[in-house]
Design brief:
Blueprint: E1 11-17, H1 22-31, E2 35-41, E3 53-55, H2 63-70, E4 75-78, H3 88-109, E5 113-117, E6 132-133, H4 143-162, E7 165-171, E8 173-174, H5 183-186, E9 187-188, H6 190-202, E10 208-213, E11 222-223, H7 242-248, H8 257-260
Parallel strand pairs: 1-2, 1-4, 2-3, 4-5, 5-7, 6-11, 7-10, 8-9
Amino acid sequence: MSTPPTTGLRWNRLLLTGAAGKLGRELRPRLKRYCETLRLSHLEAMGEPGAGEEIVPADLADAAAVDSMVAGVDAIVHLGGISTEQRWEPILASNIVGLYNLYEAVRRHGVKRVVFASSNHVTGFYRQDESIDTRAPLRPDGLYGLSKAFGENLAQLYWDRHGIETVSLRIGSSFAEPLDRRMLATWISHDDLERLVVASLSAPVVGHSIIYGVSDNSTSWWDNTHAGHIGYRPQDSSEGFRAAVEARQPRLDRSDPAVIYQGGAFVRAEPDE
């Protein structure tokens, strides 16, 4: 685990949704270092609360439960919702209705900032031989990516109309190490993910900002020039894993849509039945 960035800031109560998910479990002990109380929410079991933790389960589609979950927090790291390509109904309930419920609760309770886990899949139908920045038109690669595009637009609306600040994180591939050649471009280490989230919480002014969540990889499709004000400085790189990854995956099928497009396998993923 990394040394905490020096921000000079400490929150009274942070809310982490999706706390039992893969990235939620990784961020849970890390975020606790930046707040007096870390409120955790998920529908799945999260274990017993540790020191300085409180558990508030909530179904994102339940507006009353979401309102209770949000009450009394200073800022939110929102990882909750569906994170894979699935049927429309659960995506609608969690990622669209659920996100609307979250922002309405944020508005009612006067929460000033949300760090929203968007996804690189909002631009997944750009080709791997292209480089894009955060102002490129959206090209989602499936229903999941489409729901995250909705989330970014909802965040923009609540900034424009209600002054609620959001940093939308287009997270790449956050694993202990890159698993395949695509991840040599999309990988973000767990330590860099922490740096990204803390920078997004602590940047003085963000309005609604969008940033790709990626480490300092030699191969890169995404340009974060327009997000320099967030102050995210990645310190890790996928390059040290390149030889091992290329040995595991020596050949690529250049006709495979997962190789052609930045979204990888998501561009041909079928919704789970």
